[in-house]
User: What shape does this take?
Amino acid sequence: MDKFKEKMNEIDQMSEENKTITLNQMKSDCICPICPTYNECAKEVDELLFCVTGKSESCITKERGCMCPTCPFAQEYGIGVKYNFYCTRGTELEQR
Ligand code: SF4
Ligand code: SF4
Assistant: This one.
């Protein structure tokens, strides 16, 4: 199993409280806010970490380039190159 899938399994098994803490830590590493595709609407509702949580609910609809391949989190977990644009196309696992 690859490192990303392992991390997702680990998160799945956490209590809701630990899951929230872990996701918030991961969100702080997400570089979506500096991406041209990211927008004010997504910022206002604090949407981040689309690779893990899935598509933007209703804020992001237009793709204007994706910074995921340069994201430190993506590089650590070996994602973001083959699949990206997680905000419009769904999570890493959904796209595989
Ligand atoms: S891979 Fe993309 S969506 Fe995932 S944390 Fe990095 S910038 Fe955010
Ligand atoms: S998932 Fe990719 S395209 Fe979407 S905002 Fe994040 S870096 Fe940009």
Remarks:
- Residues 32, 35, 37-38, 50, 66-68, 84-87 surround iron/sulfur cluster (ligand 2) (CB under 6 Å).
- The mean pLDDT is 97.
- Helices lie at 3-12, 16-27, 40-44, 50-53, 72-77, 86-89, 92-95.
